[in-house]
Amino acid sequence: MNGESDIPRRHVYGRTKGKTLKPRQANLMETLFPRVSISLEEAVIDPKRLFGDVDEVWLEVGFGGGEHLAHQAETHPRVGIMGCEPFLNGVAKLVSEIDEQGLTNIRILNDDARFLLERLAPSSLARVFILYPDPWPKKRHNKRRFINQETLGFLASALRPGGELRFASDIPDYIAWTLAHVSRFNREKGETFRWTAERAEDWRTPYEGWPGTRYEAKAIREGRTPCYLAFTRG
């Protein structure tokens, strides 16, 4: 049999549901969400087919409350933007933004991004955002971090040549972890991800058109310094 019930499950760490949804959010999850949700029934997913007439497709991994994703969708109406988020309440917030702003270029997977990444057609993405992912700071939990050799392999396949991977974090250990894993991947697979920074100011400066995120604002309030990594797919 084929279908979502046959998909081998990975363990999803962290919360998947919080407070009871507000009545409006619950209603939109029943009415609007099915129209913008991503199905995993197909073995290979061509993301452009999810949107119709778009110039290219971007993906945000773990979009939280969806503020950044909604901003990008509003700013770039010719771009189809997919977002993956296991936390139901975050998905409900984004669905509310889609309704309020009348956004038509967003599609959502309420699940772990790896299930989507492993199904995407090769070279089908122009940009991927991984912004302030859970750092899992305890050493015994480091293996839960999203950046690893498996996910870098998925990203290498899904990103088109010249495509961009953006990774932002305020946790120095996770930044070092990411650079080390990318370096290892490049050594083993060939020069796949080129870090674009040429000087320290490059990774200290937010991306062009960066709207900020609530996680970033919290980090700055608490005295942590954000880091903005950008890699180009070779």
Shape annotation: globular
Mean pLDDT, all residues: 92
Helical residues, percent: 25-40%
The unreliable regions are: 1-8
Structural class: alpha/beta
Number of domains: 1
How can the largest sheet be summarized? 7 strands, mixed
Q: Into which percentage range does the β-strand content fall?
A: 15-25%
Radius of gyration: 17 Å
Q: Please report the distance between the alpha carbons of the first and last residues.
A: 37 Å
The total of helices stands at 10
Briefly say what this structure is.
By secondary structure, the protein is α/β, with parallel strands linked by helices. 37% of the residues lie in helices and 19% in strands.
Which tags fit this structure?
globular; 10 helices; alpha/beta; Rossmann fold
In words, what does this structure look like?
The chain has 234 residues and is an alpha/beta fold. The relative contact order is 0.14. It is 37% helix and 19% strand. Strands 3-2-1-4-5-7-6 form a 7-stranded mixed β-sheet, with helices on both faces. The chain has helices spanning 23-31, 33-36, 48-51, 67-75, 88-101, 113-117, 149-158, 172-189, 200-204, 214-221, and strands at residues 56-61, 79-84, 106-109, 125-131, 159-169, 193-195, 227-233. The chain is globular and about 45 Å long. It is built from 10 helices and 7 strands. The protein has one domain (4-233): Vaccinia Virus protein VP39 (Rossmann fold). The longest helix is centred in the last third of the chain and has 18 residues, at 172-189.
Strand-helix topology:
Blueprint: H1 23-31, H2 33-36, H3 48-51, E1 56-61, H4 67-75, E2 79-84, H5 88-101, E3 106-109, H6 113-117, E4 125-131, H7 149-158, E5 159-169, H8 172-189, E6 193-195, H9 200-204, H10 214-221, E7 227-233
Parallel strand pairs: 1-2, 1-4, 2-3, 4-5
Antiparallel strand pairs: 5-7, 6-7
Helix pairs in contact: 1-5, 4-5
